[in-house]
């Protein structure tokens, strides 16, 4: 396994069940976003969807419940196995494979009505790789189909030089746990270098009266909107929907692109 794959696999470790705690704000935000986008998906007659960084399968579950045929892939084998397990439990029929988005065209031969690449997965790729990822997403999208991406706006993120970011907190009644999670960030001098993320999730099991701390770290790349938008234009894409959320826990810029 190469270093990138290894880092991503361990950063998104699900052994301790902390993924949904770290991204609980993202899960809520995604559900609202999918509701907002329903009319657009209907207008473009979306039936088949692939999520190319499906994580633990949260978006696939939502999309299946809205009536779409769903497929998934992810670079991390940890994530693929967890998504398969989670979706089986929820009776979601789907096929999920392990693939880097940079090789997705080799691993998947079909094209889809909607191609999803969300949760700032672009931040795990270098600037050149981000361009290749956009090209590849276009490659597996049907003509007149849609691509849904989101990313942290690297220019604003770097500029703010924020050191601490509250990620999520709440009570998980199913697992009888109370959780609190945050990032500690280290930004470089310019936005062409990687920034460092340390994630911390503090979990209190109130049945067993036990506390555990889940720690992980990774380096990531800033995503510069102009780079992404230029690449979309190179692929003849048209931006149909744009949402930038800067309040609360969210810092994501979401785009829906039409492949002409
Ligand atoms: C923050 S998670 C987001 C998961 C999911 N899309 C969501 O929004 O909840 C980022 C995901 O991107 C995956 N990922 C990172 N780099 C990738 C790549 N090059 N190709 C495919 N997936 C990748 C990670 O394994 C992880 O599951």
From TrEMBL:
Pfam families: Methyltransf_25 (PF13649). GO terms for biological process: methylation; one-carbon metabolic process; protein homotetramerization; regulation of gluconeogenesis; S-adenosylhomocysteine metabolic process; S-adenosylmethionine metabolic process; sarcosine metabolic process. GO terms for molecular function: glycine binding; glycine N-methyltransferase activity; identical protein binding; S-adenosyl-L-methionine binding. Gene3D superfamilies: S-adenosyl-L-methionine-dependent methyltransferases, Vaccinia Virus protein VP39. Residues 49-145 form the Methyltransferase domain. This is Glycine/sarcosine N-methyltransferase. SUPFAM superfamilies: S-adenosyl-L-methionine-dependent methyltransferases. It comes from Candidatus Ordinivivax streblomastigis. It comes from the Bacteria. It is an enzyme of class 2 (transferase). Keywords: Methyltransferase, S-adenosyl-L-methionine, Transferase. Its EC number is 2.1.1.156. GO terms for cellular component: cytosol.
